[in-house]
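Input/output pair, single chain:
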Amino acid sequence: MSAQPPPLAAGADTPPSQVHDVALLDLDGVVYVGPAAVPGVPAALASARAEGMQLGFVTNNAARTPEQVAAHLTELDVPAAPDDVITSSQAAASVVADLVGDGARVLAVGGPGVDAALTAAGLTVVETAEDGPAAVVQGYGPAVGWAQLAEAVVAVRGGARHVATNTDATIPSPRGVLPGNGALVGVVSAVTGQQPLVTGKPDPAMHAECVRRTGARHPLVVGDRLDTDIEGARRAGAASLLVFSGVATPADLLAAGPLHRPDLIAPDAAGLLVRHPDVTAVEGAWRCGGWQAGRADGGLTLRLLGAARADDDGLDGLRVLAVAHWAGHPDDGRPATVRAGDDDAAAALRGWGLLPG
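Output:
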């Protein structure tokens, strides 16, 4: 076992809403999925605010303006002002303005959020490669199609700087996982042979801007993606809470490398309001509540010893598996081989998608 306990091991004796002054919340997969709120999350965020926690919203989705995002949140009973929202379009616009100068022509690929952010940054938005753009800013937009991608390819091949708001390969939706901006950025990169400059999470600039706006001293990043939210938190020096209401799965958690390992996990953002159990080393194994994970024959065996905690959120067994696996692989991420030591463990592993059947 490593000398330094892995993330998750410490837990949280006090609910995060009472410890952290600001929650930096991702949106897609955390506050809402598609047009609808994640069940119970608006009420949970209202309770966190009532306990004194501020909320900031940090999203890689570049399709909408901060005004549109704030209006949507407010409709979902999560009151928000435009200044509470940081989008990857805003981050890209700021970077591009520094690169190409005030008033420069920029080809916008994406939703209205991209156009609005570029205009607000003092740049001139154009629609075709023939307009001679100095840069191409590519962000997610549900209406992006072949014609826009073609213009982007021609512009980049003609010397324009390719800037991507983010490279999230997928986005969550009520229908399941769908292609994200990264999938379409990959099309342009494959044709041009050039990799874009990426400005959204996990670059720490977005979280840093939200910290600046809120005056946060002890922020907590809440997200559903390991490669953007959790890595972004680590790079910004902030604590993190991973929720399973969006993209990340238990298998992803176990396979996470050091930069992608969260400090806390919860089924959803209501995890802000509860204590999180610690995971302790005991006699060559690890234990969390009534669950124990031990290593044998190149894998991990999970068992329920006695009864689960009365306030187990259904993830104590996953917590102990993650800590046990990471302790054996402190410096690299790799999939875990897990076995059930009893019927309770088998049922839990199936529920997490870690055991066939």
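The chain has three domains: 16-87+202-273, 88-198, 280-351. Residues 224 and 243 are 5 Å apart (CA to CA).
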